[in-house]
Automatic annotation (TrEMBL):
MF term (GO), any: triose-phosphate isomerase activity
Keywords: Cytoplasm, Gluconeogenesis, Glycolysis, Isomerase
Reaction(s) catalysed by this chain's protein: D-glyceraldehyde 3-phosphate = dihydroxyacetone phosphate
Active site feature: 96, 168
Location within or outside the cell: Cytoplasm
Taxon lineage: Bacteria, Pseudomonadati, Pseudomonadota, Gammaproteobacteria, Enterobacterales
A biological process term (GO) from this entry: glycerol catabolic process
Gene3D superfamilies in the record: Aldolase class I
Gene from which the chain derives: tpiA
Assigned protein family: Belongs to the triosephosphate isomerase family.
Keyword Protein biosynthesis appears in the UniProt entry: no
SUPFAM superfamilies: Triosephosphate isomerase (TIM)
The keyword Isomerase is assigned to this record: yes
Protein name: Triosephosphate isomerase
Function summary: Involved in the gluconeogenesis. Catalyzes stereospecifically the conversion of dihydroxyacetone phosphate (DHAP) to D-glyceraldehyde-3-phosphate (G3P).
Amino acid sequence: MKKKFIVANWKLNGDIKTISNFLKNLKLKAPLYLKYNTIIIAPSTIYLERVYKNIKDINIFVSAQDVDINKKGAFTGETSILMLKDIGVKYVIIGHSERRFLHNEDNKLITEKFGLIKSLNLIPILCIGESENERKENKTKEVIKNQLSMILKRFGNKIFTNTIIAYEPIWAIGTGISADPIYVQSIHKFIKNYINTYDANNIEKLIVQYGGSINSKNAKNFLEQPDIDGLLIGSASLIYEEFLKILKISNDILVNN
Ligand code: PEP
């Protein structure tokens, strides 16, 4: 049975006190769930090293929420992939819809970031997904193909070995309205098939997780689907009780299978 990948995306939230309290509770309980889950915490850049040092011994990983395309130089305010690697970061979220819309990040830039992260042997968590209007116009698959095709054309499908894709329909993020798990299952199957058949390589360790208004009440319905390999969780991941409940749900599904 494949482990589920559960990512906590804290976005621009948290302070030393709340993070310390969260990690204290996570360290107490999460080891019970590590056999069946890979747990990844994505705090804001300023807390990455603090979180890493706190949880590295129990095999929980940290992810950055973004990275610059430049490795070093005169780029005020940016964070380099070399710096992330230097402090122990293993995963990097890229292409989150908040960055696509609020920071005008396009598929070209995201393709650059994807290649850069892979070239340093870190693992990208690539967010993709359609807007409300695109869904209404039945364009979900077309949008997803567009978001993936520049990477595929540039590097071939092999680059997706050992990567994570987070399918996050934009209309489901932070709205309290999650997508239908059966619909998500079909989209995940489509994503895996599209990447796997793009050229001759059969891609290993391609994780496709779902994100969008996940909480402890709806997580089970998603995690039970065969092609939903994990979850990217925003607001529910800020509350340690809620996050631990989701880890337990994920664990219990796999224990019972
Ligand atoms: C996200 O921002 O990636 C996300 C899934 O947020 P939420 O869980 O709050 O919808």
